[in-house]
Write a structure and sequence with these properties.
The protein has 294 residues and is α+β, with helices and mostly antiparallel strands. Helix content is 34%, strand content 14%. It contains nine helices and ten strands. The chain has helices at 20-29, 83-86, 89-97, 118-127, 182-189, 217-232, 238-253, 261-273, 278-291; strands at residues 34-38, 42-43, 100-103, 110-115, 132-135, 140-145, 151-155, 158-161, 167-168, 178-179. The strands form two sheets. Strands 4, 5, 6, 7, 8 and 10 form a six-stranded mixed β-sheet that branches. Strands 2-1-3-9 form a four-stranded antiparallel β-sheet. A hairpin with a 3-residue loop joins strand 1 (34-38) and strand 2 (42-43). Helix 6 runs antiparallel to helix 7. The longest helix has 16 residues, at 217-232. The protein is globular. The termini are far apart. 35% of the residues are buried.
Length: 294
């Protein structure tokens, strides 16, 4: 695959909402698989037929299976370079609601090192070779030629976006694109530090008299599933939705001793799939516990 050209375009005009479809078509022509991102800079939610992966997913997803949905479903797996798909009626409606253009770096043979703060940028300048650099709201995207595993939180303020991930297209940058260094591959090969919510004191099961109703498996499972769905379907204000959902789960299930690490991990996974970092998940969980006096 030839190196995508428009990831490095020099046109510095700010993108307007009406430009998203035209921009997406231009990027697709240069080899970048694109997808629309909605408010919150997250992919559009699956249609009803694809909700909860009922369709079996896209062929290139982790859980492979056929999917003939014409809509913008399955997040990064929806990204495409096919102009007829990008401009089709289901996609055209999504572009009108989009706030920015996303792309699948791994699908274009690229890796984005997302540096989220000044300390992360300082680290990269000392540890990584210079490459094509694009400014972001809080930091920089360092873009390399080559693919690897996508992992969030490999260091404080550092995410790696490549295979099975998406990044925002942020317009022009500077520099010359370098080959993906071994230092980034090594970071991607490691599991990020496990971030666990601080433990909380749970009341003994049945402390209020009688059997704890949460010990009916269906009751607790339904509550966790509803919380996951609420996070997954958030169309805006993802940070707030995650916090309020954590607050609701803790309020209902956090005092009897039935809520396990496995349940909490499911909630964190759902939040991180919407773009929340492990640190943001832990902060939201801790703040919810504090609000409830746990």
């Amino acid at each position: 695959m030839t190196q995508p050209t428009d990831i490095r375009r020099e046109d510095r005009r700010p993108l307007l909402p009406d430009d998203h479809l035209r921009t997406a078509l231009r990027l697709a022509t240069s080899g970048l698989p694109v997808l629309p991102l909605r408010r919150g800079k997250v992919p559009f939610g699956n249609c009803r037929a694809c909700a909860q992966n009922a369709c079996g997913g896209r062929p290139n997803m982790k859980h492979a299976g056929p999917c003939r949905c014409p809509g913008v479903c399955h997040a990064w797996a929806a990204a495409t370079t096919e102009p007829t798909v990008i401009a089709s009626p289901p996609w055209a409606a999504a572009w009108r609601r989009a706030v920015c253009v996303g792309y699948h770096p791994g699908g274009a043979g690229l890796t984005v090192v997302d540096l989220d703060n000044a300390d992360a940028i300082t680290w990269a300048r000392g540890a990584l070779p210079a490459t094509w650099t694009v400014p972001t709201t809080r930091g920089e995207h360092w873009i390399y030629w080559g693919t690897t595993r996508s992992v969030n939180g490999v260091r404080d303020g550092v995410d790696i976006k490549s295979a099975m991930s998406y990044a925002r297209y942020l317009g022009p940058g500077t520099g010359t694109m370098a080959a993906l260094p071994d230092a980034v591959r090594a970071l991607a090969a490691k599991e990020p530090p496990t971030v666990r919510p601080a433990p909380f004191a749970a009341a003994p099961a049945g402390a209020g008299g009688g059997e704890c109703r949460h010990r009916t498996p269906a009751y607790l499972e339904r509550g966790i599933a509803m919380a996951e769905q609420r996070i997954t379907e958030a169309s805006s204000a993802v940070h707030t939705t995650v916090y309020r959902t954590f607050l609701a789960v803790l309020s209902t299930h956090g005092r009897c001793g039935c809520l396990t690490d496995a349940h909490v991990a499911r909630l964190f996974t759902a939040a991180q799939a919407k773009g929340e970092s492990p640190r943001h998940c832990t902060d939201a969980w801790t703040n919810a516990r504090t609000a409830l006096g746990m």
